Amino acid sequence: MSASAIASTTVYTSQSGFLAQLAPASYTETFTDLSDGPPGPQTFGSGTFAFTAQASSGLYLSGGFLGTSQIDDALTVSFGAGVKAVGGNFFTVDLGDSLQSVNVTVTLSDATTVSFTPTSFADSYRGFVSTLDITSLTISAPGQSLYASMDNLTVGTIAAVPEPASWALMGLGVMGLLAARRRAV
Fold first, then answer.
1. Nearest-angstrom CA–CA distance, 123 and 182
2. Under a CB-based contact definition with an 8 Å cutoff, are residues 117 and 91 in contact?
3. From the CB of residue 7, how many other CB atoms can be counted at a distance below 10 Å?
4. How distant, in Å, are the alpha carbons of 28, 40, 129, 134, 147 from that of 49?
5. Which whole number is the average pLDDT over 121-146?
6. Helix (H) or strand (E) holding 139
7. Residue 72 and residue 50: Cα distance in Å, rounded?
8. What is the pLDDT of residues 51-105, one digit of tens each?
9. How far, CA to CA in Å, does 86 sit from each of 50, 110, 150?
10. SS3 of residue 172 by DSSP
11. Helix (H, G, I), strand (E, B), or coil: what is residue 48?
12. Cβ-count burial of 15 within 10 angstroms (0-12 exposed, 13-18 middle, 19+ buried)?
């Protein structure tokens, strides 16, 4: 495998830290005011950052979040080409839609796997920025008799970061300006 085909993924636990890495024009779905649609996969958004959510048992759309309609089912989200940043609240709920403090695993298409145990909605946020396209993510909490869920899903791409050569040229330019200013004084 060539070095360029190996993903480098950064994981953020802060929504503000994740959002600071995004290029303009990302898409966020809050799942607010939605109700269960027809059986099968559901598509959200449009254009480059549209995504499709599915679970083998069907989806549950109610109460302002998206989840599986049956316990112990994985929730999978698929993205189109060009998505390099995905973030959201990932958690599990019980039958009464109450967040449960159990181990949640999020697996990305680039083989990044993150497991964590959110104790509240506030600490259920995870953001992922990858050097390769993120084509899917899967949320699971197997064997817990709970429903995999997510909210506030943001899909985007990363802001352009100058190459080291560009940084060097900018540095030389700044040094030149400082030297010219010094001579003028």
1. 51
2. no
3. 15
4. 9, 20, 14, 11, 25
5. 90
6. strand 136-140
7. 26
8. 999 999 999 987 789 999 999 999 999 999 999 999 999 999 999 999 999 999 9
9. 12, 12, 12
10. helix
11. helix
12. middle
